[in-house]
Structures are given as C-alpha cells and as structure tokens.
C-alpha cells in the first residue's frame, strides 16, 4: 500500500486597522492558516514560500523555514493552526504560495496555498 500525501489548507484573513496607516500606504493584515494532514503518513512542514501582490501589481516573495518559528509535524488527521501577518501598500491585495513538506518516509512534496484576498473594509464595493 502506498502512502498518500495530502495537506488541506484553510485561510482566514483580517484587516488590522490599529496597525495600519492608510495615509502612508501601509495596510496591515493578519491571516490565520489551518493545515490538516489528510494523507496516510505523518509529514513535517519544512519551509514556506509566499507571493504577495498588491493592487498595483507590486509583488514580494517571502521564503523561510517553517511557520511562526516552528516546523510542525502533523500525524494523519492532525491539524496545526497559526496566525501571521503581512504589510502591503494598497488596501487590497492577494497572497498565495507553497509549503514544502517532508513525509515520514523521506519523500518531500509541495502543498499549494490557494490564493486569498487581503482587503481593507469599505474598499471593495
């Protein structure tokens, strides 16, 4: 029986008005990501790569080890939830990316983080 590698990802975002300064083109967003291992084998999150794009098409790439200082290992059926943040220069933008994972059997695989929208209130009509 072969191992299956499947990580489910859910994203929630919120605009952080108290940390944002629209007059200075500084819009701060928090995002909470929930990862759930839907595969048949445990997997460890090694690194992440984000593509962050504002509404003027300025793109920033962010890469690094783990998430929020951790490299969580998820057993089959187990989840991990964390909150992080980003700053963009427009009230609306998008983020997407990849988590690089390594399974217990040594196989590395990438999990796509689906694109999600960052939007300050009262901007989208």
Characterization of the model:
The strands form two sheets. Strands 3, 4, 5, 7 and 8 form a five-stranded antiparallel sheet that branches. A three-stranded antiparallel sheet has the order 1-2-6, with no helix packed on it. The protein contains no helices and eight strands. The protein has a single domain (7-117), classed as ApaG domain (Immunoglobulin-like). The mean pLDDT is 95. The chain is mostly beta strands and 125 residues long.
Quick gist of this model?
Helices cover 0% and strands 60% of the residues. By secondary structure, it is mainly beta.
What's the arrangement of secondary structure elements?
Layout: E1 7-15, E2 27-37, E3 43-54, E4 59-65, E5 73-74, E6 79-88, E7 92-103, E8 108-119
Antiparallel strand pairs: 1-2, 2-6, 3-4, 3-5, 3-7, 7-8
Protein traits:
Immunoglobulin-like, 125 residues, mainly beta, 60% strand, five-stranded antiparallel sheet, 0% helix, three-stranded antiparallel sheet
């Amino acid at each position: 029986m072969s191992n299956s590698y499947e990580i489910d990802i859910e994203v929630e975002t919120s605009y952080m008005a108290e940390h944002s300064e629209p007059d200075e083109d500084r819009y701060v967003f928090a995002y909470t990501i929930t990862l759930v291992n839907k595969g048949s084998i445990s997997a460890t999150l090694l690194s992440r790569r984000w593509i962050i794009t504002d509404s003027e098409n300025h793109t920033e790439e962010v890469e690094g080890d783990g998430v929020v200082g951790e490299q969580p290992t998820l057993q089959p059926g187990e989840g991990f939830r964390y909150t992080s943040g980003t700053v963009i220069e427009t009230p609306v933008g998008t983020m997407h990316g990849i988590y690089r994972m390594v399974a217990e059997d040594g196989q590395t695989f990438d999990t796509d983080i689906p694109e999600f929208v960052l939007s300050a209130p009262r901007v989208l009509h």
